[in-house]
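Much of the work behind modern protein science is quiet bookkeeping, done one molecule at a time. The protein below has been through that process, and both of its lines are reproduced in full.


***
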Amino acid sequence: MKYLDEFRDPVIAKAILDEIHAITTREWTLMEICGGQTHSIIRNGINQLLPSHIELVHGPGCPVCVTPLELIDRAIAIASRPEVIFTSFGDMLRVPGSEKDLFMVKSEGGDVRVVYSPLDAVRLARENPEKEVVFFAVGFETTAPNNAMAAWQARQLGLSNFSMLVSHVLVPPAMKALLSSEQNRVQGYLAAGHVCTIMGWEEYEPICREFDVPIVVTGFEPVDILEGVLMTVRQLEEGRNEVENQYARAVAREGNRAARDLIAQVFTVSDRKWRGIGEIPLSGFRLSDTFSAFDAEKRFAIGEIDVDEPEACISGIILQGLKKPYECPAFGKECTPRTPLGATMVSSEGACAAYYAYHRHHPESATPSPSE
């Protein structure tokens, strides 16, 4: 598999690791901002292969995990209505609300369907004019173009029975919020390559200047991540704070202009609450006034929902990179994929799910075998 196997090549990986070990003279704390990178790191044991001076902490780069609890409850309330076909990607169905999840709504008779594209939901609205079809639009900038296209197409088709429950969040404001915290430990970022394929990396340059941190746009394969770590550590050791692009095969500085133009037509930037973190100014998308007719929150007057996170769940602290999943007293006990307390245990990009799946329950876990 040319262009894939080379990014999993153990010989290349070892050469990069040797260089990381050779140049590291101080303790550094790096954060990967993407949950997909977290899973790659834990699955491949990358954190256990790095010098002991380098700690990788896991950021809020899982959009499912940071979707507010009250919005999950709002989704459940809408999905429970008899006139509604509620559509979503599969990883949202097991995310616990305050009392139940969307799978439970489905088991109770609600018409909840997994789709593989927001355009599937548009098609369902065309095929079921007597029903209200709602799509749960969750994601970072990566999925924003597809979701924007669904709203754009629904408007072109004149569909009055299609709407979206929007929970889009933006990476750069979250990075700034973490760096501004008094508890911040992050000295360098591995930026999410897929987000940058859409948005480019221009918006990271002011963050480097303001907070004196290096940011390296990084891919998802083991060699990608190791090279991203090497580039970040090299900057730290040399006292540089710049944006660099490890993921050059997919990312350009300006991103994807067509996708960005479509996003700007359909969405507008707004304040957004992040589960476990709180409200971050100008950190999300909402539908613009032109497309507000497709806003499910306006269409379905659910009213105010005010709920608290389970006291036993520390996912908010984990999402801020302040603790690892195995440091949670409930991890692997009260909280498992079958009985999750928080979204980080059930999302396909959740840090707790990664540690549970790959048996990294303790920091002293054995280094993974080459087969892993």
Q: What stands out?
A: The chain has a mean pLDDT of 93.
